[in-house]
């Protein structure tokens, strides 16, 4: 079965990046989650990204905070789709992470998600949608998830004064 890699710059990113893992698990997609850093483990980054396709990954979710070079550097070393997740930084609240990830030069693509946990969850959803192109069970799980979300909103659409 196709699987998804979740990588992050530090264990401190895990509370955010866990949202991607939770989404993949809910949709029945296999994943591996690990720390890889462009700055702190540059050789591991190259080794990981260059072997990701042959190791059976269909997509890579990469989360980092601050000077978040991880998603772009991974994208530079693989043809797999890379989804970049800006993790909230303490100094600038994640704006630095967002701008570091989103402003890729033409020719090397990173799909950038929103800052923080919602963005990480959506990275999981997008990666599952990539897997769903080849996997009917995951496709059905994605469709059911979306339908359930719609039903929940429609069942609670009436507002009253507090
Ligand atoms: N942005 C990067 C990269 C990278 O881009 O490769 N490696 C670590 N980091 C980030 O540094 C922040 C602080 O890390 P620590 O909490 O370990 O000090 C984390 O958000 C991490 O993603």
Automatic annotation (TrEMBL):
Pfam families: AIRC. Pathway: Purine metabolism; IMP biosynthesis via de novo pathway; 5-amino-1-(5-phospho-D-ribosyl)imidazole-4-carboxylate from 5-amino-1-(5-phospho-D-ribosyl)imidazole (N5-CAIR route): step 2/2. Residues 2-153 form the PurE domain. The keyword rRNA processing does not apply. InterPro entries: PurE_ClassI (IPR033747), PurE_dom (IPR000031), PurE_prokaryotes (IPR024694). Catalyzes the conversion of N5-carboxyaminoimidazole ribonucleotide (N5-CAIR) to 4-carboxy-5-aminoimidazole ribonucleotide (CAIR). HAMAP family: PurE_classI. NCBIfam families: purE (TIGR01162). Belongs to the AIR carboxylase family. Class I subfamily. This is N5-carboxyaminoimidazole ribonucleotide mutase. It comes from Alteromonas salexigens. The lineage of its organism: Bacteria, Pseudomonadati, Pseudomonadota, Gammaproteobacteria, Alteromonadales.
């Amino acid at each position: 079965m196709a699987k998804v890699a979740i990588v992050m710059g530090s264990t401190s990113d895990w509370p955010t990046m866990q949202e991607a893992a939770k989404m993949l698990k809910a949709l029945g997609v296999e994943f591996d989650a690990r720390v890889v850093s462009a700055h702190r483990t540059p050789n591991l980054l190259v080794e990981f990204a260059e072997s990701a396709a042959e190791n059976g990954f269909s997509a890579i979710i990469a989360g980092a905070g601050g000077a978040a070079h991880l998603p772009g550097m991974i994208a530079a070393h693989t043809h797999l789709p890379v989804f970049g997740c800006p993790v909230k930084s303490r100094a600038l609240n994640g704006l630095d992470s967002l701008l570091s990830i989103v402003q890729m030069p033409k020719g090397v693509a990173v799909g950038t998600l929103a800052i923080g946990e919602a963005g990480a969850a959506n990275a999981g959803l997008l990666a599952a949608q990539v897997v769903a192109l080849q996997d009917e069970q995951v496709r059905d799980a994605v469709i059911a998830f979306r339908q359930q979300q719609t039903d929940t909103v429609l069942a609670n659409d009436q507002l009253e004064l507090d």
